[in-house]
Amino acid sequence: MELALQGIIFGLTLSILVGPILFALLQTAIERGFRAGAMVGAGVWFSDLMFIVISYSSMAYIIAITKWDGFEYTLGTVGGLVLLGFGIGTFFSKPPAIPDENEYSDDIIDEQLPEVLEWDEDEDTNLKDAPDYFKLWLKGFLINTLNPFTVFFWTGVTSTVVIGRDFNDNDALIFFGGIFLTVVITDLLKIWAAKAVRHLLKPSAVLILRRISGAALAVFGVALMVRVFMF
């Protein structure tokens, strides 16, 4: 129980951090709905699970790689370019199937609020606007995998907590399980909340949020590259 609680605390700490993943999840859920947001999340979770398995089973190799002089430079440059690309693409594109603002009722809360309780819809009735779930999954996977923070977080947790406290396989499973499940559950809550707010937003507000999300991703990308080049 204590190990699970420690994992939950680590997971909550990770979940409250403001980073590119948060903006990607919220933007997708607002524009595409719960399932699309969850697919971005699934890419992130797969990436996290991959790092957990690799860092725990190949700790010596991971530490050696992270100590390589060009590691942070290479990963930071590639990750920064990916984030910058996603940010620019998001900023200059329009959300899918934006309806006319005149279609929205003045009494929008009374008419739209009950719909936030629906979990299973993506309102892309037009097939050409239907989300490509693999691309959404890949977006989440790449943003998380190419972020140096992700590598150092899981490597640090594994080396200082799991190996540092001499966990056995069962202890590690409970601890990592607590972190992973907490991250998944909190991400799903973020996605659901963003999807719920979607019904209360006019198209102009959705477009503004897309611009903010794109700008944020681009800023994270530039900051990542500046960090590896300047520090």
Provide the β-strand percentage band.
Answer: under 5%
Distance between the termini: 41 Å
Radius of gyration, CA atoms, in whole angstroms? 19 Å
Q: What percent of the residues sit in helical stretches (DSSP H or I)?
A: over 70%
Written as H for each helix and E for each strand, in order along the chain, the element string is: HHHHHHHHHH
Number of helices: 10
Largest sheet: none
What does this entry look like structurally?
- With 231 residues, the chain is an all-alpha fold.
- The protein has one domain (2-12, 20-120, 132-230).
- Helix content is 74%, strand content 0%.
- The chain contains ten helices and no strands.
- It has helices at residues 2-15, 20-32, 34-57, 59-66, 71-92, 108-112, 133-145, 148-162, 169-198, 203-230.
- Helix 2 (20-32) packs across helix 9 and helix 3 crosses helix 4.
- It is globular, with a radius of gyration of 19 Å.
- It starts with a helix and ends with a helix.
- The model is unreliable at 98-117 and 123-128 (pLDDT under 50).
Key features of this structure:
mainly alpha, globular, single chain, 0% strand, 10 helices, 231 residues
Summarize the structure.
This protein is mainly α.
Could you give the topology of this structure?
Elements: H1 2-15, H2 20-32, H3 34-57, H4 59-66, H5 71-92, H6 108-112, H7 133-145, H8 148-162, H9 169-198, H10 203-230
Helix pairs in contact: 1-9, 2-3, 2-7, 2-9, 2-10, 3-4, 3-7, 3-8, 3-9, 4-8, 5-7, 5-10
